[in-house]
Amino acid sequence: MLEIQHNVSLKNFNSFGIQAFAKYFVEINTEEQLSQLFNNSQIVKNPILILGGGSNLLFTQNFDGVVIKINIKGIKHIVDNQNVLVTAGAGEVWNDLVLYAVNNNFAGLENLSLIPGSVGASPIQNIGAYGVELKDVFESCTAFEIETHKIKTFLKADCAFAYRESIFKQALKGKYIITSVTFNLKLKANLNTQYGAISQELHNQNIQNPTIKNISDVVSQIRVSKLPNPSTIGNAGSFFKNPIVTKDQANQLIKNYPQIVNFSVDDTQVKLAAGWLIEQCGFKGLVVGNTGTYKNQALVLVNYGNASGQEIFNFSSQIIETVQQKFGVTLEREVNII
Ligand code: FAD
Ligand code: EPU
Description:
The protein is of the alpha+beta class. The protein contains 8 helices and 20 strands. The chain has 3 domains: 67 residues, Uridine Diphospho-n-acetylenolpyruvylglucosamine Reductase, domain 2 (2-Layer Sandwich); 112 residues, Uridine Diphospho-n-acetylenolpyruvylglucosamine Reductase, domain 3 (2-Layer Sandwich); 104 residues, UDP-N-acetylenolpyruvoylglucosamine reductase, C-terminal domain (Uridine Diphospho-n-acetylenolpyruvylglucosamine Reductase, domain 1), CATH 3.90.78. Helix 4 crosses helix 5. The chain starts with a strand and ends with a strand. The structure holds flavin-adenine dinucleotide and uridine-diphosphate-2(N-acetylglucosaminyl) butyric acid.
């Protein structure tokens, strides 16, 4: 039985801790409940927002429609030679899935330890951290098509994954609700320790032959030391993407700012560290009213108290403008503005 609630506070459903209200709010535990919900034409004629853990959203106003909180659970796996296909319900907590893999000694998810949010949101922006992106372990996902009420399977090639991008944020935005994701993990670990902070931390801890669990633990420790915990300081992780510029523009910037943090993407493109650009504009650790940037990471905007979403959004606009003026680089928000 579906329970459709009215006028529900979303404060505990977003990692920024922003007070906003949903006109309707419904929790979905099964794919069948999605069909039931979408058969209620009175309700679904309203605007729709799919909600996982709310850790990549900024509410700048109340949501005058239906918030659909995805709680579809379950994790199972099948072993096929050296591969393990692990399937998780979209409502599973991402890090619970990571721990399931780590505890079973399945390799592939350990670098993505402790990213907040749900399994179902992970393909939306192709989550990534410490040298690994979701696309590296993604096998397929199932999704409910809102128009037809049918469940469709998407393979990796269908998803147009790129840095913090997928087809679900672009051409198919608002058309599908992801219900499960299948990951291709390995029994024989081929560990990725290339990311500087990981190799440094393994060295500090004198770990020479790391296990899957070692990597997971080290990544978790690095993350805790760098990023604010949303349960104490509201935030949504990196507020902006790291901007990708042409090699020519990067060379000009490097000439003017030899310290600029940059990474080669390919022969023609270079990724710049947005945190560095923002810090150079004097924003790091700055407190402006109830908002500001985190003291250890200028790319993370925070709610220091009772900030409104609009206040944080306005501050982010100020950052975009200042970075644009100083460096001629346009920052793009990673967080979904609602
Ligand atoms: P939500 O915020 O609930 O939703 C995000 C978007 O996905 C929305 O547009 C929503 O409508 C859509 N969506 C959610 N579920 C579904 C579904 N089942 N079907 C269709 N659409 C859906 N991200 C990284 O990539 N790397 C990091 O290292 C990282 N670190 C973070 C650290 C902190 C402290 C925080 C707070 C966030 C961090 N993030 C990071 C961002 C965030 O964790 C990810 O974007 C995560 O995937 C969001 O999951 P969620 O369930 O909370 O999504
Ligand atoms: N930097 C600064 N000043 C700052 C912040 C960073 O100079 O205030 C410099 C650092 O010194 C470093 C570089 O910028 O040289 C990169 O910083 P960091 O390693 O902290 O990573 P990031 O590029 O800021 C990205 C992701 C994170 C992910 C980490 C680790 C994006 C937008 N962000 O951050 O993802 O966890 O790498 O892989 O790509 C997220 O998406 O929400 C998120 C947290």
